[in-house]
Design brief:
By secondary structure, the chain is mostly helical. About 50% of the residues lie in helices and about 0% in strands. It contains 24 helices and four strands. The strands form two sheets. Strands 1-2 form a two-stranded antiparallel sheet. Strands 3-4 form a two-stranded antiparallel ribbon. The structure holds heme C (7 copies).
Length: about 475
């Protein structure tokens, strides 16, 4: 383990940097300094860009005891032939003596779960290694912001996640630093991390276009018009809404998938609407939290629609019981919140809006956006039920190796046209509908979200009808 801040303070008690030039004021610092000068000198020709960034970094420029190459990379490599001996830091290295607060906060939030979340997906396991592994070209390129080596249900752990003690980290030479997702090396600037463009290489595109939504909302437009003020602008940045007071624990009420865990009361309330499900619902309720979602609609019809979505994702079984996926994705991966966390985060977010907007305006915005999830869920559930019916009636057969069918988590590996449409609704249209609503991007909410969602539901309803007709004709022959 690196103990560099400690080492630095011992060795460099009064060393200062002036314009990147090291001034020795204390002989005790000579060892570390001499070695560092060697690193800098040789790397000035090997990787001049890195040296330039390093010399320009606030940790080199501004600190009384500058951080040295050796503090992060150790002393072991010092010649042109033993580069493999250099150590590459992890997020823990940053916290070893200095940035403990940020690490502790980040560990509590969703970013830390990103690698685990990715690996919990069926779709991940179906793809070739270059897309998922240490080439960092696809899923892994974005999800490396998460900590490696978190173990869950696939390793037989059914409680909280456990750490493998560094085994998986050791399998990967690069990509364990996490913090460099926003504070890129070797300048590690705070100002860079405060810029919303920093979030945009991951939070963009197909299933989570928050960057595009922000840039088409009044918030982003004013940020851009008024010269990209990241701290005291008239409108907030991503960071001001999601990392208020510099808190590194990012997390939202609805999360990526726009799901929440039903409460005991929600599920028991369903029995009135679906008395035939009394037994399964009573059993399901024993797994669920108490409490209620403040200001949210608890219409049983919506509870049922959400249950059907979870069923199609294999998170609830055919008889509505929690599956191993429920534990892995919802409990361990924290993909959905229960009422206490949901309410707490909602209140915090509203308080942020309230700095610039009236309480009533803010409440209206959240009510409308929540209601949009309800409408989208109802459409989605109709389409799912039409496809589920095809499996029930033997018109579609469960593909070999599939545990559930239809299975939303097969993503684009689904076999039929109607299931490809379900996949598009789940990851593209429904996401854009509600994410666009919350981020005040009307075009994403409507034309990129709701409109194609409705079109897709119509395609599915029509197509399933045709498939039934075709099956009847075959039978009649
Ligand atoms: C005599 C030249 C020389 C010296 C001195 C030197 N390096 Fe290197 N270093 C290299 C070369 C060559 C590479 C490989 C570069 C490449 O592959 O393009 C390298 C690679 C690295 C890497 C990347 C390792 C990897 O696996 O990608 C790190 C980190 C590194 N050096 C840090 C240091 C530190 C810290 C010091 C001082 C303790 C140092 N270097 C001193 C020549 C040197
Ligand atoms: C504050 C910590 C820190 C300091 C100081 C630091 N580095 Fe790094 N370095 C990192 C991190 C983080 C990575 C990325 C590791 C990864 O990919 O997991 C890295 C990666 C590297 C790499 C390989 C990756 C690449 O982009 O090629 C080289 C080479 C390197 N550092 C050289 C140096 C040299 C030379 C110095 C001093 C002039 C230095 N570093 C100072 C943190 C540091
Ligand atoms: C390197 C890619 C990357 C960068 C850069 C990045 N994120 Fe993320 N972010 C992710 C991933 C991946 C997840 C999903 C984590 C998981 O699997 O649980 C995520 C999750 C989140 C969530 C949690 C949503 C929820 O489920 O509640 C928020 C909020 C968030 N990021 C905000 C930001 C902000 C703000 C920035 C810029 C300051 C940022 N992110 C930069 C990759 C990134
Ligand atoms: C462009 C970067 C990027 C790529 C590529 C990417 N993801 Fe993500 N992923 C994210 C971001 C950002 C989030 C969080 C989005 C949000 O909360 O709205 C996320 C969220 C997730 C989540 C949800 C976690 C949760 O708790 O809600 C899972 C699971 C996931 N991704 C798996 C994958 C898999 C598997 C792949 C490859 C097949 C993949 N991702 C490819 C950036 C990416
Ligand atoms: C998702 C992007 C993101 C990631 C990942 C991230 N940071 Fe930050 N960091 C920020 C932002 C934004 C700020 C500025 C916060 C503010 O406005 O006060 C910041 C500020 C900081 C500061 C300066 C605090 C201050 O008060 O001046 C430190 C130190 C820091 N981060 C360390 C870390 C460490 C260590 C990690 C990894 C454990 C990390 N950060 C990961 C976005 C990030
Ligand atoms: C005006 C404040 C605000 C700004 C600016 C903002 N967000 Fe959000 N963000 C929200 C709200 C509100 C939600 C929904 C919270 C909830 O679930 O109740 C949200 C949700 C999210 C989520 C979870 C999935 C979703 O989209 O609903 C992610 C990830 C996210 N934002 C990332 C970003 C990124 C990245 C940026 C900048 C490009 C950004 N946000 C800008 C307020 C903001
Ligand atoms: C730093 C101040 C600030 C914060 C914080 C802020 N906004 Fe805004 N917001 C603005 C400004 C300025 C405008 C542009 C006002 C106008 O259109 O005249 C705006 C515009 C909007 C609009 C579109 C304009 C309209 O009148 O329809 C919505 C919706 C909105 N904000 C919602 C929110 C929500 C929700 C939050 C919290 C998640 C939030 N804002 C946080 C400053 C802020």
């Amino acid at each position: 383990m690196l103990r560099w801040c400690f080492v630095v303070s011992m060795l460099l008690s009064s060393t200062t940097f002036v314009h990147g030039k090291i001034i020795h004021e204390n002989n005790a610092s000579a060892d570390a300094q001499t070695t560092n000068e060697k690193c800098v000198k040789c790397h000035n020709s090997v990787t001049p860009g890195i040296v330039k960034q390093y010399l320009d970094s606030p940790m080199t420029q501004l600190l009384k005891k500058p951080v040295l190459c050796v503090n992060c990379h150790s002393y072991e490599h010092q010649t042109a032939d033993d580069a493999h001996k250099a150590k590459l830091p992890t997020a823990d290295s940053c916290a070893e003596k200095c940035h403990t607060d940020q690490l502790v906060q980040m560990r509590k939030g969703k970013h830390n779960l990103a690698w685990f979340g990715m690996k919990s997906q069926l779709a991940y396991h179906g793809q070739p290694a270059p897309i998922t592994g240490d080439g960092y070209r696809g899923c892994s390129g974005c999800h490396k912001i998460g900590q490696k080596g978190l173990m869950g249900i696939q390793e037989g752990i059914t409680e909280e996640l456990e750490s493998d003690g560094g085994k998986e980290i050791a399998e990967y030479r690069y990509g364990n630093a996490q913090c460099d997702a926003c504070h890129t090396r070797h300048s590690f600037k705070k100002s860079e991390a405060q810029d919303p463009r920093t979030c945009s290489n991951c939070h963009m595109g197909f299933d989570h276009p928050q960057w595009e939504m922000y840039m088409s909302s009044k918030h982003g437009i004013i940020w851009d018009i008024e010269n990209n003020q990241n701290v005291n602008g008239r409108t907030p940045t991503c960071q001001q809404c999601h990392m208020a007071e510099g808190n590194h624990e990012v997390r939202t009420s609805w999360g990526f998938l726009g799901l929440r865990i039903p409460t005991k009361e929600n599920v028991l309330g369903l029995i009135k609407v679906a008395p035939n499900l009394e037994e399964s619902l009573t059993k399901l309720a024993t797994f669920l939290p108490d409490g209620n979602y403040e200001g949210l609609d608890d219409d049983p019809g919506w509870v049922l629609d959400r249950a059907i979505i979870l069923q199609a994702a294999g998170i609830l079984s055919a008889d509505l019981q929690p599956t191993e996926r429920f534990i892995e994705i919802v409990v361990q991966g924290e993909a959905a919140n229960g009422p206490s966390k949901f309410n707490e985060m909602r209140a915090k977010m509203k308080a942020i809006c309230n700095d610039c907007h009236a309480k009533n305006f803010v409440a209206g915005h959240f009510n409308a956006s929540d209601a949009i999830i309800k409408s989208a869920d109802h459409q989605f559930s109709k389409a799912i039920q039409a496809v589920q019916g095809l499996y029930k009636d033997g018109i579609l057969q469960k593909p070999e190796g599939w545990k559930y069918a239809p299975d939303l988590l097969q993503f684009y590996d689904a076999k039929t046209k109607v299931e490809q449409e379900l996949y598009l609704i789940m990851l593209k249209y429904r996401q854009r509908t509600f994410q666009g609503a919350f981020h005040a991007s009307n075009d994403y909410m409507h034309w990129y979200g709701w409109a194609p969602l409705k079109a897709s539901v119509n395609i599915i309803l029509e197509e399933t009808k045709n498939m039934r007709k075709a099956a009847q004709t075959v039978e009649a022959k």
